[in-house]
Design a protein that fits this description.
With 373 residues, the chain is α/β, with parallel strands linked by helices. Helices cover 29% and strands 23% of the residues. The protein has 2 domains: 218 residues, Alanine racemase (TIM Barrel), CATH 3.20.20; 125 residues, Beta Barrel (Lyase, Ornithine Decarboxylase, Chain A, domain 1), CATH 2.40.37.10. Strands 1, 10, 11, 12, 13, 14, 15 and 16 form an 8-stranded mixed β-sheet that branches. It has an 8-stranded parallel β-sheet with strand order 8-7-6-5-4-3-2-9. Helix 5 runs parallel beside helix 6.
Length: 373
Amino acid sequence: MIKRSAWAEVSTEFLGNNIRVIRDRVGEGVKVCAVVKADAYGHGLSGFVSALSDYGFTDMVAVGKFYELKKVFAETSADADILLLGAAAADEIASALEKGEIIPGRSIFSVYSPDMLKRLNDVAESARITLRVHIRIDIWDSGMGISPEEFNEYQDMIMNMPHLKVCGMYTHLYTAYSDDLDEIASELKSFDEVVKKIKPEYRERLCIHALNSALIFRFPQYAYDMVRAGTALYGLPCDDGGRLKPLLRVCARVFDVREVDGGIPLSYINRNGDKKRRIARIMLGYWDMPLLLTQKEVRVWIKGKLYRLADDVCMDNLCIDVSGEDDIQVGDLAVLLGEEGVEAVDILDRNGIDPVHGEWMCMTAERLEKVYI
């Protein structure tokens, strides 16, 4: 028995399964980039990256914020390359280089515009190093990347910055989770046209990637050199045919069970009715799982049954109405995510949330201890 009041279990066995499913889909020779932004989708950034490294599960990891890039270097000994998907200001990169907070040889920066490319080149020149970059292509020219027209026009300049090593190019499709497969296919073809126009001497040094989790299973023919797996990595649904397995199981131990008279407060605002009820309490609250525990239809799994909350969730604890169940005792396991009836898809369905937001239910606070099993 795990002797903790509340914790989140992350299954490395299921992680290995999901990596294999992804590799089987995209074929031999295609790299898998593990997207670990947003605290590894609630699975714990540093611990998750360490697990990926320990088991040799991935070829590259991708973070969303510059802070996350520094955190991986500060808290892990993982040796994979790290791709920053978000934009970082030149001065914060320069400061981090000066302080030794990042490792230049393992850091890869996304470039969204020709101006950003030049600013990064200036940073590298000042630091007397070479920085590695991936060029982001924006099919719609929305400000989230270099347009196909710009890349075609300035290809030689982009690929020959004196203090930058352009080693990759990618796109991100915001239509990826839509049902409009024709539109998705059209956008992928537009990106493919850019890829086809890359000069051979440049193409051989580039890692091309276009597919996120949703597209891995819909359009594997566009896998190119690498795919970026976020949702799929964590076992959330993405047209995978049920082969992926959710990694996260959020648990707590019942620390008190008692009969409570009506009218006695159970939370910040007294909404307890007039009836006496049997109440079980666990030490896990909305600060531990802010999105899941602020939904209207919250259920808790105990001994194979689902129970409703007895009142509002507190920051640190919640109370569960177990009236009529005399066999529930102190020490029993309560599961909020990761058992039948409380999987992410069940919670989304009960609360009328679009399945594209499955990762919302995995959002956990850093203070909720992560146990990698």
